[in-house]
Write a structure and sequence with these properties.
- Pfam families: GATase_6, SIS.
- This is Glutamine--fructose-6-phosphate aminotransferase [isomerizing].
- GO terms for molecular function: carbohydrate derivative binding; glutamine-fructose-6-phosphate transaminase (isomerizing) activity.
- The active site is at residues 2, 604.
- Helix content is 35%, strand content 23%.
- The protein has 609 residues and is an alpha/beta fold.
- The longest helix has 22 residues, at 428-449.
- The model has no long low-confidence stretch (mean pLDDT 95).
- The structure holds glutamine hydroxamate.
- Glutamine hydroxamate binds at residues 1-2, 28, 73-78, 102-105, 127-129, 607-608.
- Residues 1-2, 28, 73-78, 102-105, 127-129, 607-608 line the site of glutamine hydroxamate.
Amino acid sequence: MCGIVGAVAQRNITPILLEGLKRLEYRGYDSCGVALHVDGALQRSRSTSRVADLEKQVDETGLKGFTGIAHTRWATHGAPASHNAHPHFSPSSDNARIALVHNGIIENHDELRAELTALGYVFQSQTDTEVIAHLVDHMYNGDLFDTVQQAVKRLHGAYAIAVFAREEPHRVVAARQGSPLIVGVGQGENFVASDAMALAGTSDQIIYLEEGDVVDLQLGKVWIVDVNGKSVEREVKTVHAHTGAAELGPYRHYMQKEIFEQPRVIGDTLEGITGVMPELFGDGAYKVFKEIDRVLILACGTSYYAGSTAKYWIESIAKVPVNVEIASEYRYRDSVPDPRTLVVTISQSGETADTLAALKHARALGMEHTLTICNVATSAMVRECKLAYITRAGVEVGVASTKAFTTQLAALFLLALTLAQVNGRLTDEEEAAHLKAMRHLPSAITSVLALEPQIIAWADEFARKENALFLGRGLHYPIALEGALKLKEISYIHAEAYPAGELKHGPLALVTEEMPVVTIAPNDTLIEKLKSNMQEVRARGGQLFVFADVDSRITSGDGVHVIRMPEHYGQLSPILHVVSLQLLAYHSALARGTDVDKPRNLAKSVTVE
Ligand code: HGA
């Protein structure tokens, strides 16, 4: 969250900074801003609208420069207002000596604010970031690189910062601790950004800064010191980052496009898999899988629901016990570590702060067998884990995850099969049958997508509601949770999901004629139990909206609306059912007129805790 770009060059860098911000806008869109060194002074432009608006502003004012920084914000401290937008200046807007942008949270900001206020600094914003700008200004000794190294020692919490000073027109200094930051090395010019995608087309020579690094960027020089202030060489990697600038094509939103891409990206994720092989998860995977006798899955949000689905698969197919934990809880609770655990992290971006911290916590507890299911091969998560399975969802632009989720599920199903095989629990016939079903997934999903017109009819009704319940059982309970999350995220309709058997233990009290109850009804061993739960809802007047397998024997009637799923799909059924729930959320949001790709208060790639 929050995107940073910075540059020091011998040409006008405004277009590079703005292009970088556009590509980083997924990380936050509460406000954005750019600051440049112009004729011996610091100038900035900020907007509480989108980067396109900032670009117009910059065009109008003709803001140009060779050295500068830019930022797109997801607010943590202080409202999404223009005075809180980065870059922040110090000591004041009219007399700026220091300009600074920040991604992260400074936990001791209150204490520093009091100290700096006592020194005469007047704060213009409610952000924790402004304290860093004033701190750097206060400590400034004529050498920005040295000053920043001293200043960051006073910060508690997480930060990626980029800063420049009026007195040093050809220098940008950056530092990171707990938030991502990369350097793009150029010819006689250098760059810094939150991720390599921001610099695609400008520099593909990328250095991934490590925790505690401080970097000095000058025209012909990149100098890095580590957390101990020691000069270090970091590897420069050639990274062909995606620009993320995918065309919308015939779609109205990226989310819709990404929902419809699922047949292809699941095919891509499983491409070339001719058999279940531990090596698909990386070198040495066989040995690791042999040495473990339990699995701990750490994730947040939608990825957590992918992990929750995987628990059902891994326990039933591989008979390996699985715990799934919300990363932000796990990292702070006392747990009982077991070194014979496979720690699996799931993250679309591979930069999710809570998941990364939970992974480090697990390792600190002595659990060294780590695997990540991740969509970004160059991410911190992939670098930090011993094993990895890279999903091939491609760049996901919509903030509400869709194709990343289903590709995670495909990878996790493969993990379940692999653990079963390593444990001698997968016969050749079973392997062949599962692989056949997986290969058929793209065409099965295509059939679900064809249900869109029926789902649109339901969505028109949903759009008028303020609450909804989602029910599922077994394997489909996490899918109900994901369906409710999707609806909340983009349509702002309050939605909750329950395992259907839990209704009578409380939530049934909410059911009236006004309550739509979405029910996932695959024809599995729990179907008769589920039908009883549906009766309980009907008896209270609740309106049932049922996604039923073709052979579930549930028919439309009074207060019961049924959409028939095209096929009965056994254990892979969650991957099909979630697609219909994505469409329901998308079309409900569309009918309510919300900003589907950039829902309020949210951002992609959650790099703060
Ligand atoms: N705390 C700063 C930066 C926010 C951030 O990094 N969000 O992801 C602010 O609120 O401006």
